[in-house]
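Quick one, C-alpha cells below. Sequence please?
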C-alpha cells in the first residue's frame, strides 16, 4: 500500500524537535513491503490538504499530536481526514475528544462499570464545596491536557487551602478547568491494547519509582517525563511488571473493558494505579499512544512476542480490516519484447 506517515513536525525546518518515531514507523512499513512517505505539517492547513490529496494515499499512519496552537488540534486533524475520505490508522475525532475531557471519559467508564478514582471538575465558578464527598489526599490535574502538563509533586494536596491554590494555578497558568481526583497511593501500571473486534492486552508495564528519594511523590509528573536532568526523571523508569497472575489478569481485564467502553480503535494504552488492598483504578486511557521503539507500548509488545516491525505492520493490518480496505493488487511488470535491450 502507499502509506503516508502524518506528523506535525517538519524534519527540515525543526530537526531538534523532530521525533525519531516517525522514521522508525517508516522503516518498519518499508521493511514490510509498503511504500511509505512522510508528510510533516505544523500549522499550514493548505499544505496539509494538498499533501493528503495530491495524490491521495491508500492509508495514513497518523502520528499527529498538535496543529499549531489549536486547542483541539488532534481532533481537528482526524476530522479533516474523515472529511477528505482518507483512511487512517488510529483514533478518530471521538477518541481524541475524550482524551481532551477526562470528566466525560470517567462518566463513560462509570456507565460500563470500570473502576476509577472518585473525582470532581472545578471550573472557574467552582468553590471548595465541589470536592464534598472526596477523601483526602487529592490530586489536581488539568482537565484536558496530556503529557503530564500542569502536574508536579505539589499537585497532591491534603487540605482545602492547598486544593484551592492548586486549582487556581490550573485555571490561571494552564488555562484549563481542573480535574480533582482521590489520590490512589500505590503502584502504577499501564497496559497496552491492540485490535478492534477482538482486542488483546499485552503484558503490563509498571512505573518503577524506587530511584526517587524516600519521601518524593510517586507520580509521573512533567519533570519525571521530560526533564532528563532532573532527579525525578532519573529516578523513574518503566519496567515489565513482575506481579502475581491474578493481579496481571485483573489489570488486563480492566484495561480491555476501558478500551471497549471508550471505543478506542486499533491501539491504545490504559494507565492504572493499584491501592494498598490490591484494587486497580483506571487513571487515563490513551488512544493512539506513543509508538517509539523503546516506548512502554513497544516494550510490552516485544514481551508479548511482537517485535517492533511486526507491531507496526499489525496495526496497519488491523486498520485495513476495520476499514474494509483491499490492498491494491501487485501488477506484474510487462514482459520485455524479444531482442530489446
Amino acid at each position: 500500500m502507499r502509506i503516508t506517515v502524518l506528523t506535525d513536525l517538519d524534519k527540515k525546518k525543526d530537526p531538534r524537535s523532530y521525533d525519531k518515531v516517525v522514521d522508525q514507523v517508516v522503516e518498519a512499513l518499508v521493511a514490510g513491503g509498503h511504500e511509505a512517505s512522510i508528510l510533516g505539517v505544523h500549522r499550514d492547513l493548505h499544505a496539509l490538504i494538498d499533501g493528503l490529496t495530491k495524490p491521495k494515499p491508500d492509508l495514513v499512519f497518523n502520528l499527529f499530536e498538535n496543529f499549531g496552537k489549536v486547542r483541539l488540534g488532534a481532533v481537528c486533524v482526524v476530522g479533516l481526514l474523515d472529511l477528505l475520505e482518507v483512511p487512517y490508522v488510529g483514533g478518530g475525532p471521538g477518541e481524541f475528544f475524550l482524551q481532551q475531557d477526562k470528566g466525560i471519559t470517567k462518566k463513560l467508564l462509570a456507565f460500563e462499570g470500570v473502576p476509577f478514582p472518585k473525582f470532581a471538575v472545578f471550573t472557574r465558578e467552582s468553590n471548595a464545596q465541589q470536592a464534598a464527598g472526596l477523601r483526602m489526599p487529592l490530586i489536581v490535574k488539568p482537565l484536558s491536557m496530556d503529557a503530564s502538563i500542569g502536574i508536579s509533586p505539589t499537585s497532591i494536596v491534603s487540605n482545602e487551602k492547598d486544593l484551592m491554590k492548586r486549582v487556581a494555578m490550573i485555571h490561571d497558568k494552564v488555562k484549563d478547568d481542573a480535574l480533582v481526583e482521590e489520590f490512589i497511593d500505590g503502584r502504577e501500571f499501564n497496559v497496552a491494547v491492540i485490535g478492534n473486534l477482538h482486542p488483546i492486552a499485552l503484558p503490563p508495564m509498571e512505573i518503577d519509582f524506587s530511584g526517587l528519594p524516600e519521601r518524593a511523590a510517586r507520580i509521573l509528573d512533567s519533570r519525571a517525563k521530560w526533564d532528563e536532568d532532573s532527579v525525578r526523571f532519573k529516578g523513574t523508569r518503566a519496567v515489565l511488571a513482575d506481579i502475581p497472575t491474578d493481579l496481571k489478569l485483573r489489570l488486563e481485564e480492566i484495561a480491555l473493558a476501558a478500551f471497549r467502553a471508550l471505543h478506542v480503535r486499533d491501539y491504545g494504552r490504559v494507565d492504572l494505579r493499584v491501592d494498598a488492598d490490591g484494587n486497580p483504578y483506571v487513571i487515563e486511557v490513551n488512544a493512539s499512544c506513543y509508538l517509539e521503539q523503546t516506548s512502554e507500548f513497544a516494550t510490552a509488545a516485544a514481551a508479548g512476542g511482537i517485535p517492533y516491525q511486526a507491531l507496526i505492520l499489525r496495526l496497519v493490518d488491523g486498520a485495513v480490516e476495520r476499514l474494509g480496505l483491499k490492498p491494491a493488487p501487485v501488477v506484474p511488470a510487462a514482459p520485455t519484447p524479444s531482442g530489446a535491450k
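The chain is about 35% helix and 20% strand. The chain has three domains: 2-89, 118-182, 187-323.
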